[in-house]
Every structure is written in structure tokens, then in C-alpha cells.
Design goal:
heterodimer; A: 6-stranded mixed barrel; 24 helices; about 55% helix; B: alpha/beta; 6-stranded mixed beta sheet; 4-stranded antiparallel beta sheet; 8 helices; 10 strands; about 25% strand
């Protein structure tokens, strides 16, 4: 074993605490970088990954069984535009009763012999495929709990079927599947064909593909054709919200990592000057000394980097899987380039940080190095220390406040880490506040606590008399403060093939109007920001809507806070224009204070089993994931910043062990020692807090509108107004808390210092 | 009255034993120091004299036996209790002065009083008084690095006297000084003892012992080998 290696190993072992700090800091920093870069890379294409894995259909086509033959469909599949085809499968829309006692819901059921094939390979994530008579597989995302256990009976179009499995199609090709033989008994009136085209990157290419496969068919043979780009656009809008805040957190994590690593490493080198001097005195060449030092720092750094990469991958995979709802295809991993970049980049960064002080040590003579390893030079910040000594502050506090001035460069690096730590906390609090405020507003948490569907379900044609009776029932159940009736119609803008939902309200549904006003009069509608952006409309524009052959001109009079681009809102008078005399098919209920939503829903079900009442779920899983991610990253950044402070406090107290011994010998109590050391770092923390808050607020102001833009949503101004004086005061304390936490352990160690040992060890 | 005062025992060590692992640094030491006495402890390196000084200062605890200073059993005090005891009862002088490099002489001296809550202005006034008495008032704004060895030790003595301690402990107080500065420090200790300051010093310097002490305790292998009274030499 060479002398250099032996000396390096000995140095690592002797500086156990420093080795641990370097390892943990590089480990946590690497973890954050992997998570941030991993999420950043994945947010660009988890839908594409998931879709590619399932060979998802570019076009889901539904044909009228009476107007096409299998031979025609097979001929269409041979067109050059078609890369692969699955089907034809029999398809029917049936009323399903999945949970006993609940009203029937219309579900699309398809007959497929197996879940595989060239297109739309389904993920059967629980149970097995339906192969025999009386078996059904239900569609469910693996991240959602199944509504009924395997083996449970369900009713479909009046027939009893047994649930034998749960499967998921990213393309949403059906809501239930049965064996083809079973499908035949359900009298399918539609044929489903799934296509993958050779070119399908744009809407025009998908439309060209659709035109090719339907060429020559009888008019009206194609009942519906859904492009995968619609789903992709929706996914992009959701995933896009992640990108801006990940950019901010990724930058913060990198900056904190650089600062802390630089501080820890340069501190290790400076604290090791004496050791360097001894090595030189023993005959080590300057190059060998530098190698010893780089090895001493690199060994724990590489170990930390490896551990950080492994744990970062595990964490990022979990976050990605939750963030992108998994798309039902299994986990989404970190891109390989992220691991390559971090595994090479972090050790290189650490080595670079160590190189500068190591070069400095290399150039020192043995005698200089040995003397440089003692206490800091006198003469730094002396005037400040003197002034502090004359103040009314307790002496332990004033001594502590003066300590950072003895090592100004180290203090500045430490403070910069705290600044970034506080910036992260500030940004995280702002982000959580804005997202929560947005979620609360768009979920209408204060306006609607229970939604009630009538037996006819959405789109049904109910009479006004039934409507009045149901509304009266809902009002009669104790706890109802307000019952707002709703009727839904599928509509399309004249000249467009895209349909969307029009929701007509009788009463105040509690939507927040961002611009314009609520559409109370006949012929008025309100829509979301996403609706306007996706269709190129503005508030004030007019358009013609069409529903079941009825065409009426309407005007967009307001923009409301709503997280969907496929809904238009209107008042009851507008419904009268399209479907006069129609009754409500759903009700939204605001409860009196103290009434439980589930209790009310149960009471409604008891009063009228035909009414399907469910508490509204205002918690958006995507929002929850954003808040969880941001909290986790913030905690990690705070921990790394605190470790930076710990390292500085350790270096300071070790360098000043003689002074500490002397202070204790003249009567400084352990509590005063702790107070002094913690104060020295808390002062940096408080200053870091004051500087970090504005940076965090600016980051919040920059990231939130970018997030809103990416997600195609509009925030009310008050959603950005989240930094109130008590919050700001708490944020200043966050800096102090980070610093105090980091300083506490070294302070306690300093308080326990054996005076006799340090004072007589001259 | 003065006779009663001089009979009062300031330090009482009873069968004190201190072990570091398998090694006994002190092996059944018993010793009394009365008020106003100046006692020098001598002996070869490793004989336990510094360990004994640490016991009296409350810097360390005995493994067995009792250490009483001003009637206080130090073995019964916790870390904070011993710190509070030190700041009120003990003044310490070290071989290497142990001044804070980043405070000027005046603030180094005032520090001891400020730690017990004396306001800065009052503490500095008392510190200046002491520096004046010890002949280094003109160096009050000078930092330790710019003071001579003798000046540093005078500043250290002033700091030790700041809270009017009942007992002054000195660990090789002339060990790092040249002969002239050493003589000055010896004169200072004699003057302090003559005005009634009890003194316990540990030294290798026989001249220091014979000039400043009224009693000499010689230690060998952690035990008191011999005690004798001294006639101070001029």
C-alpha cells in the first residue's frame, strides 16, 4: 500500500465527523439533483412513454355496425397510412350497476379476446382477462382503489356479470371489456377499431389517417373518432405545471449543493493545514500532499454521490408514478442521462471545490502550513467585536455575534447556504399557499359539498315535475343550506367536430368569475381560461352552439375559475333555448355548517334510493403531489443548509477550543457556551432569512404565472397574495431555525469540552 | 479577627484519587490551604501537580475523595455549578496566558465580570483600575498579539483578579516568560499575597516557589511526598 493511500485512509478515519458531513451533504445534494432533473426530464414526456409502452391507439374509431362490414374495415387497415390495427371489436353502451344500491351508469363495453395485440396493449394489473361467459374486466387506473373486489357481481344492461379483473388503457379505449362471445349476447350496435398510423405527430396527420381509413365507407358509418392528441394535450397541461417549480427547485438544489460542498471541502482543507504541514515535514512532495487531500475529500463524496443517486432514483420514481398518475402502465423511471450527469458531475464538482484550497496548501511551506492550522488570524472584525463588547447584550451573546467576523469567507458561504435554504422555504410556502388557494376556489369547496345524480344520469331527459320533486327531497333532508339544480348537454360549436359539455345551472353554483360576469341571461355562457386558449376565443366573442339538431347563438360573457377546457357554463334560461322543459339531472348541495357530507349523502340515499349522492372530492391528487414534492425538497434543502451550518460551527469551535476552554475556566457556564455558539450561527441565519425572503418571493412571482400558463389556468390575483406579515415573521425565524439546528450539536459538544485537556495541550 | 481569618481553611483535599484508565494521576492526596497562604506545588513532570490544580479549580472531578474549596464540596456540583463556583471564587493564571486574540487587553480583563452580568461600562472601569494597578493601563487598547509576554501575563492576572476571587491558582505562571518578565510576575504575586490573596501555584521553577510561596508541597507519583514551610527569599 502506498504512503499516499495510507495517509488518505488515515485522514478519512481521523476526521470522522467531517467525512460524514461531506458524505451526507453530497448524498442529499445528489438526491435532490437526481429528483429535480429526473422530474424535469420526465415531465416532458411521461404520457408519450406510457403511450409507447402500450402501443396506444392514435385513433379510436367507432363505426355503425349496420353501415360497415368487417371486409371493408380489413381493407382499410391495409392502407399505407396505417401502421397497425386492432379490432374490429363489438362495442355497446350499457347501464352498469357496479356498487349495489347505486344508480346505473352508462359505460362503454368492448368485446376483446385478449388484452394484448398490436395496438392498445392493456395493463391487466389485477385479476385476469375475461375469457368465459358472465365475466367482465373493468377499467381502472392502478393508482385508484378498485370499487369492488374481484369476484363481485355487477349488472350490465340487466345481465349479471362477475368482475374477474381490472385493466387500464392509457388511451381510454373502453370502460369495461368482456369476451367476444359474451359481447355477442349484449347486442352490440357499434364496432370499435383501434389504429396506429405511420405518421401521427400532428392533428392534421391523425385527421389524414382517419380520412384514409374511412374513405369509401357509407356516409355516417363513422360514429366517432377520437385522436390520442386530445389526451396528450390534457396530459401536457397537467405535467407542464411541474416544470417551472422544478426549474426553481433544481437551480436552488444545485446552488446549495455547490455552496455547501465548497464550504465543507474548503473548511476541511483549511482545518487540515497543520496536517499538511506535518506530511510535508515527513517528506511528502507537494503533489503527494494534494493527492492525499483530494482523496480524503473524494472518498466520502463519491460514496455520498452513489447513495444519493440510488435513493434519488427510488424517490423520483415514486414521485413520477404519483405525479403522472402512472398512466396505468407501471412506473416511470429517471432518464439515464440524469444518472450519468450526476454520477460524473457531483464528484467532479467536489474535486473542483477541493482543488482550490488544496492548491493553496500545496504552495505553503511546511512551517507556514503548521502555523496556519492554528486559531484564526487576529485582526479580523476586531472593531465590530469591540463594539459588541460594549453593548448591553449578555456577554455570551455579544461574543457569539462577533464570531462570524473571525472567518468572514466561511461565514459568507454559510450564510449564502442559509439564504438559499430560506429562499426554498419561502418559495415552498408561497407555492403551497397559491396552489391550495387555487384548488379551494376551483373545487368550490365552500359552495358545494355534495353532488347528487338522478336516476336518469347526465344527459337524460327528465321532466320538470321529477326535477321539482327531487329538489324538494334534497331540501327536506336536514343539513341542506342551498340546492342548485344542474342539467348537462353535450354540445358542439357549429363548424367544429369537437364536442364539449354545457352545464346549465338554476341558482348560484359558486364559480369564481375572473373576468366579465356570470351568464344569467338567455344566450350567455362562461368558460375557463383553458377553453378560451384551446379554442382561440376571448370574453365577449359570440359563437353558435349545436345540440341534438338545435342551433342557438351564444355569447361568452365571463371567464370563470375552472380546471377544465371542455365545459361551458350557463344559466337555466339558456337551457330553455336548447331543450325547453328539461328537468335537472344533477344537483349541487351546499351544507349548513357542522353537517357532515357523508352523513347528508347517506340521508339522501335513505330518503330516495334513486338519488346518487356523493361528497365532492376537492382534493386534487396532482395538487397533493406538488405540495408533497415541494415539502420534501424544502426539507432536504433545509437539512443540507443546516448541515452546512453544522460544519461551520464544528470548524469554528474546534479552531477555538483553547478560547472556549479559557472562557469556561473563568466561569462561562455550559449554557452560556451553547448560547454563544448558537448565537454565532443564528446571527447568520437571521441575516440569511432577511435576504432569502425577497429572493423566495421573487421566485414565487416568477414561477406561479409560468405554472399557470403551462397548465392553461388563470389565477385570481389574491392567489398570489400569500405572504402576510405573520408568515414573513415566521420565514425570518426559518433562517434562524436552520442555523440554530445546525449549530446546536457542535455547541453542545463545545459546552462539554474538557477544559483541563484543551488548556494544557499546548 | 485577622488571626481567625488566617486560620480559616480555603482548600481542603481529603484522600483525593484521580484515575485516567489504569493510571492513577493522584493517589490519595490530602492537603489544606488556609486563607492568605501562598502554596507552591512542585514535582517532576507527570507527578500529578496539574491534575491537583484542576481538581481545586473544579475543572475536573476526583475519582475518589473530596475536594472542598471555601466549604463547597466540588464533587457534588454539576458542570454549571462548578462554572458558577469558578467565576465567583477562583482566579486562574496559565502558562500560555490564554487571552482571546480578538479582544484588546481591556476587554479581555472585563470579560470575566461581564460573564456574571456586570454592565460593560462598569466592567471596563474595574478592568482599567486593575490594569493600572498592574502597570499596563497604557496597553489597554492593545491586542494580545502586540503585547510582550510579561504584559500578557499581567493582563491575565488582571483578568483572574476581576471578580475578587478567594483563591488565585497559577499553573506555571512564569513558564513562558523570559527571566525579567518572570521576575516582574513574581513580584506581582508576592504583592498580591501580601495584601491577603490566597495563592496556589504549580511550578517547576524553584526560584518562583522560594520567592513567592510560604509553603512548599512536593509531589511524586501522584502523592504528597513532603511539605515544608518556606522563608521567602528576596
Amino acid at each position: 500500500m502506498s504512503a499516499v493511500w495510507r495517509a488518505s485512509r488515515a485522514a478519512v478515519r481521523r476526521r470522522r465527523l467531517q467525512t460524514i458531513v461531506i458524505g451526507v451533504v453530497t448524498g442529499l445534494s445528489t438526491l435532490m439533483v437526481v429528483v429535480a432533473l429526473g422530474l424535469l426530464a420526465a415531465s416532458a414526456g411521461p404520457f408519450d412513454q406510457a403511450y409507447a409502452r402500450q402501443d396506444g391507439a392514435h385513433l379510436v374509431a367507432a363505426y355503425d355496425r349496420a353501415k360497415v362490414t368487417d371486409a371493408q374495415l380489413a381493407a382499410a387497415a391495409r392502407r399505407p397510412e396505417v401502421a397497425a390495427q386492432a379490432g374490429p371489436f363489438g362495442q355497446a353502451t350499457l347501464g352498469f350497476v357496479i356498487e349495489p344500491g347505486r344508480p346505473a351508469r352508462q359505460l362503454t363495453v368492448v368485446g376483446r379476446a385478449d388484452p394484448g395485440g398490436p395496438v392498445d396493449r392493456l395493463n391487466v394489473w389485477q385479476g385476469r382477462w375475461a375469457t368465459g361467459p358472465g365475466e367482465v374486466v373493468l377499467s381502472r387506473n392502478p393508482v385508484e382503489p378498485p370499487p369492488v373486489p374481484l369476484g363481485a357481481p355487477v349488472t350490465a344492461g340487466g345481465r349479471s356479470l362477475t368482475v374477474v379483473g381490472y385493466a387500464y388503457s392509457v388511451g381510454g379505449s373502453a370502460e369495461a371489456w368482456v369476451a367476444p362471445a359474451q359481447m355477442a349476447t349484449l347486442r352490440p350496435d357499434t364496432v370499435q377499431v383501434l389504429y396506429r398510423f405511420t405518421r401521427a405527430a400532428t392533428e392534421a396527420q391523425v385527421a389524414a389517417g382517419q380520412a384514409a381509413v374511412t374513405a369509401g365507407l357509407a356516409p355516417g358509418a363513422l360514429l366517432a373518432g377520437r385522436s390520442y392528441l386530445v389526451l396528450r394535450a390534457w396530459a401536457a397541461a397537467s405535467a407542464g405545471t411541474f416544470v417551472p417549480f422544478l426549474v426553481v427547485f433544481g437551480c436552488l438544489a444545485l446552488a446549495v449543493a455547490v455552496l455547501i460542498v465548497a464550504n465543507v471541502v474548503s473548511g476541511a482543507v483549511v482545518a487540515g493545514f497543520r496536517h499538511i504541514g506535518v506530511l510535508k515535514a515527513l517528506g511528502f512532495t507537494p503533489g503527494q500532499v494534494m493527492t492525499v487531500y483530494l482523496a480524503m475529500v473524494s472518498i466520502p463524496a463519491v460514496a455520498g454521490c452513489l447513495a444519493g443517486t440510488v435513493f434519488g432514483n427510488l424517490l423520483a420514481r415514486t414521485l413520477l408514478t404519483n405525479a403522472f398518475q402512472n398512466y396505468g402502465t407501471g412506473g416511470i423511471g429517471v432518464a439515464p442521462w440524469v444518472n450519468v450527469v450526476t454520477l460524473l458531475g457531483m464528484p467532479a464538482l467536489v474535486a473542483l471545490c477541493a482543488l482550490v484550497p488544496a492548491l493553496r496548501a500545496r504552495s505553503l511551506s511546511a512551517a507556514e502550513a503548521i502555523s496556519a492550522g492554528s486559531a484564526p488570524h487576529a485582526g479580523r472584525g476586531l472593531r465590530i467585536q469591540r463594539r459588541l463588547g460594549g453593548t448591553r447584550l449578555p456577554r455570551a451573546v455579544s461574543l457569539g455575534l462577533g464570531l462570524p467576523f473571525a472567518r468572514p469567507a466561511r461565514s459568507v458561504l454559510t450564510m449564502a447556504a442559509v439564504v438559499l435554504g430560506v429562499t426554498s422555504v419561502t418559495f415552498a410556502i408561497g407555492l403551497a399557499g397559491t396552489v391550495t388557494s387555487y384548488q379551494k376556489s376551483q373545487g368550490r369547496a365552500d359552495a358545494v359539498q355534495v353532488e347528487v345524480l338522478t336516476a336518469g344520469g347526465p344527459g337524460g331527459t327528465r321532466t320538470a315535475a321529477a326535477d321539482r320533486a327531487d329538489a324538494a327531497t334534497l331540501r327536506s333532508v336536514p343539513g341542506a343550506a342551498q340546492v342548485t339544480a344542474r342539467a348537462d348537454l353535450v354540445v358542439r360549436a357549429a363548424g367544429s367536430t369537437q364536442t364539449f359539455m354545457a352545464m346549465f345551472y338554476r341558482g348560484d353554483p359558486g364559480f369564481e368569475t375572473l373576468s366579465g360576469r356570470w351568464p344569467a341571461a338567455a344566450g350567455e355562457i362562461a368558460v375557463s381560461e383553458r377553453f378560451l386558449l384551446q379554442r382561440g376565443y376571448s370574453v365577449g366573442d359570440s359563437l353558435t352552439l349545436e345540440s341534438e339538431g338545435v342551433r342557438r347563438p351564444v355569447r361568452i360573457v365571463g371567464k370563470v375559475l375552472m380546471n377544465t377546457g371542455n365545459v361551458a357554463l350557463a344559466g337555466w334560461p339558456t337551457l330553455e333555448l336548447f331543450a325547453p322543459g328539461t328537468g335537472a339531472d344533477a344537483y349541487e348541495v351546499r351544507l349548513t355548517a357542522g353537517t357532515g357530507a357523508q352523513a347528508y349523502a347517506d340521508a339522501v340515499h335513505a330518503a330516495d334510493p334513486g338519488l346518487d349522492a356523493t361528497p365532492t372530492d376537492n382534493a386534487d391528487s396532482f395538487v397533493a403531489v406538488i405540495i408533497a414534492t415541494v415539502t420534501l425538497l424544502t426539507l432536504m434543502l433545509g437539512a443540507v443548509a443546516a448541515l452546512g451550518v453544522l460544519n461551520t460551527a464544528v470548524l469554528n469551535t474546534r479552531e477555538r477550543s483553547r478560547d472556549l476552554g479559557m472562557l469556561k475556566s473563568i466561569g462561562m457556564t455550559p449554557r452560556q457556551v451553547v448560547l454563544m455558539v448558537v448565537t454565532s450561527m443564528a446571527a447568520l441565519g437571521a441575516l440569511g432569512g432577511v435576504l432569502g425572503i425577497p429572493v423566495g418571493i421573487v421566485a414565487h412571482r416568477f414561477a406561479m404565472p409560468a405554472m399557470a400558463h403551462a397548465a392553461q389556468v388563470a389565477f385570481p390575483d389574491r392567489a398570489l397574495d400569500v405572504y402576510h406579515p405573520p408568515v414573513l415573521a415566521l420565514l425570518v425565524l426559518a433562517g434562524v431555525a436552520i442555523a440554530a439546528l445546525g449549530a446546536f450539536l457542535p455547541a453542545r459538544a463545545a459546552a462539554r469540552l474538557t477544559i483541563a485537556k484543551v488548556l494544557h495541550n499546548e | 479577627m485577622i488571626g481567625e481569618e488566617s486560620e480559616r481553611v480555603v482548600v481542603r483535599l481529603t484522600d483525593v484519587r484521580k484515575e485516567y484508565g489504569d493510571t492513577a494521576a493522584l493517589d490519595g492526596v490530602s492537603l489544606e490551604i488556609r486563607a492568605g497562604e501562598a502554596v507552591a506545588v512542585m514535582g517532576p513532570s507527570g507527578c500529578g501537580k496539574s491534575t491537583m490544580l484542576n481538581m481545586v479549580a473544579g475543572l475536573d472531578r476526583p475519582t475518589a475523595g473530596t475536594v472542598e474549596v471555601h466549604g463547597e464540596d466540588l464533587g457534588r456540583l454539576n458542570e454549571t455549578g462548578r462554572a458558577l463556583f469558578r467565576r465567583r471564587r477562583i482566579g486562574m493564571i496559565f502558562q500560555f496566558f490564554n487571552l482571546l486574540d480578538d479582544l484588546p487587553a481591556l476587554d479581555n480583563v472585563a470579560l470575566a465580570a461581564q460573564l456574571i452580568g456586570t454592565p460593560a461600562k462598569q466592567a471596563r472601569a474595574r478592568a482599567l483600575e486593575l490594569l493600572d494597578e498592574l502597570g499596563v493601563a497604557d496597553r489597554r487598547n492593545t491586542y494580545p498579539a502586540a503585547l510582550s509576554g510579561g504584559e500578557r501575563q499581567r493582563v491575565a492576572v488582571a483578568r483572574a483578579l476581576m471578580n475578587r476571587p478567594a483563591l488565585l491558582l497559577a499553573d506555571e505562571p512564569t513558564g513562558a516568560l523570559d527571566s525579567r518578565a518572570g521576575e516582574q510576575v513574581m513580584d506581582l504575586l508576592i504583592d498580591l499575597n501580601q495584601i491577603g490573596q490566597s495563592l496556589l501555584m504549580v511550578t517547576h521553577d524553584e526560584r518562583l516557589a522560594t520567592r513567592c510561596a510560604s509553603r512548599l508541597v512536593e509531589m511524586v507519583d501522584g502523592r504528597v511526598a513532603r511539605e515544608r514551610s518556606l522563608e521567602r527569599t528576596p
